[in-house]
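Let's practice the habit of predicting before peeking. Look at the sequence and jot down your guess about where helices and strands might fall. Then scroll down.
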Amino acid sequence: MLTKPFEEVPPRLCAWRIAVFARNERPTLVSCLQHIARAAAGRDAHVTVILNGSSDGSAHALADAAPEIGIPFDVYEIDYADKSNAINQFVHRLRADAEIYFFVDAYAMIGESALRDLAAALAANPRALAAAAVPSVGRSADAIRAQMMVEPGLHGSLFALRGEFVARMAETRFRLPVGLYRGDGLIGSAVMHDLDALRVPWTWEHIAVAPGATWRFRPLSPWSAADRRRQWNRLLRQGRGEIEDMAIKRIIYEGNYAALPDFASALVRSLVREDRGEVLRCLRRRPAGILAVREAFAAPDPAPAALAPRRILTAGA
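Done guessing? Here is the structure:
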């Protein structure tokens, strides 16, 4: 496997481009791409894998399995472990033109018809800027599916955006604050408001739900040390995420999406300073968020070099 410096992607129109986001997902990453290959069979499709903060040899696993994956793909590596930054890098630096962009988490094994169902939902709903998949496994899957049919939203494990909408995300310099926990929620908000929270009312019809587009995943095990760490980190980030959401709503309805800070830590700090009472009420609901708030004040923001992607593998092109 050759490591190459970052190069701009040639501007070739592709029907489908699929972005896969992974941090230490070696056990599932190859299978994730194989499921994508089956779902994209017969289509002009390309996969961009973005490893963010991975240290488990994911890139080597992909290099070894490249001949059997069955779809052209590139692999990029980012030192800093953060999906929101990885999404920013894809939208603003790594993507090439496409009719539809799909976003997939590397732990998700998507259904064979998932991509076609998402594309069909966009085709059948001209006002829709995005298409949402629904979970098929997990204790809360049924409740989430029912809720999404009434109040559509994007689930970070699998969703699709129209190509022209992603192009406008880049043109308007829409970015997720680096370190943001619920990046898919903020993208969903931008979709509902068509990138303008001050002039475009919240519009449910901008997201089309595709009930047939599903995915499955391996449930976390209490006997796995790695899974216990993942669950603990999730609890920490959920507490911080609720505070981030409150700060985001204040900012976008006063100054629009362009007023969002570069880093999510600034969202937490601003809300603590402006409304300490609301933050305390949030922390009573999610006590683990206290540690996340402390980190927002204590930890330095990452350097630009840590956020930049490096291309490390091209396969099947």
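How did you do? Strands lie at 14-22, 45-52, 73-78, 98-105, 109-110, 130-135, 158-162, 207-216, 309-315.
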